[in-house]
Amino acid sequence: MKFKKKDIFFQTLENMADTIVQAADYFAQHVSNLQDVTTFANEMKQFESKCDSFTHTIITELNKTFITPIERDDIMALTTSMDDVIDGLEATTSRFYMYQLGQPDEYIVQFAEILRQSSYEIQKAIHLLSQKKLLAIREYTIRLNDLENQGDELLRICIKDLFAKVSDPIELIKRKEIYERLETTTDTCEDVANTLESIIMRNS
User: Fold this and answer.
1) HEC sequence for 52-95
2) DSSP calls for the chain
3) Exposed, middle or buried: residue 204 (CB in 10 Å: 0-12, 13-18, 19+)?
4) What pLDDT is recorded for position 182?
5) How crowded is residue 182: how many other Cβ atoms within 10 Å of its Cβ?
6) Could you report the per-residue pLDDT of 118-168, keeping only the tens digit for each?
7) pLDDT score of 5
8) What per-residue confidence (pLDDT) applies to 36?
9) pLDDT, position 164
C-alpha cells in the first residue's frame, strides 16, 4: 500500500517544532554550565536560521497553494508564534555573548527548564495537529498556559531577589534584561497555545 505524502504545511510545522525542542534542549543543557559563550551563541544562531528557512518555506507554499489543510491565517499565525519562540531563545543567548555574562544563576537555569518543557508540549501538540487529532491538543495547550504562569511567578521572584542582592547597577541591568527576555519567551510559547486553541475551536 502507498502512504499518502504528508502535507507540506504540517510537515514544515513539525520540522519547526522539532527544531524548537533541539534549541531549547541545547539552551537548557549549556546554560546550566556555560563553558564557551561564543560557541553557545553561534549554535543558537544556527537553530534560529533553520527556523527562518522553515518560515520561508511556509510563506512560499502559501503563495502558491490554493487549498490549505487549515485556514491560511492559522498556518501563518502558528508559524509566526513558533518562530518567536526560537527568536526569544536566540536573542537571550546573544545577550550572554554581548554582555559577557559570567555563570548563569539559578533563575536563568529555572527559566531554561520551563522553556525546555514548553518546547516539548509544543512539539506534541503540533504532531497531533498533523494527525488532525484536534481535541487531544488541548491537554498540551493547558500545560503551556500553566508553564507560562510559572514563568510569570519566577520573574516576580527573581526581580525581587535581584534588587535585594545586586548593588552594581550595570550587573543589575544585564540580569534584569535577561530575566525579562526569558519571561517574554515563555509568553511566546503561550501564544503558540492560544493559536492552537483558536484552530481547535474553528475546526472541531
Assistant:
1) HHHHHHHHHHHHHCCCCCCCHHHHHHHHHHHHHHHHHHHHHHHH
2) -PPPPPPHHHHHHHHHHHHHHHHHHHHHHHHTT-S-HHHHHHHHHHHHHHHHHHHHHHHHHHHH-SS-SS-HHHHHHHHHHHHHHHHHHHHHHHHHHHTT--S--HHHHHHHHHHHHHHHHHHHHHHHHHTT-HHHHHHHHHHHHHHHHHHHHHHHHHHHHHHHH---HHHHHHHHHHHHHHHHHHHHHHHHHHHHHHHHHHH-
3) exposed
4) 97
5) 27
6) 999 999 999 999 999 999 999 999 999 999 999 999 999 999 999 999 999
7) 65
8) 87
9) 97
Counting as low any pLDDT under 50, the low residues of the chain are 1-3
| CA distance linking residue 82 with residue 13, whole number of Å | 9
Q: List the grid coordinates of 117.
A: 518543557
Is the pTM value of this prediction over 0.70? yes
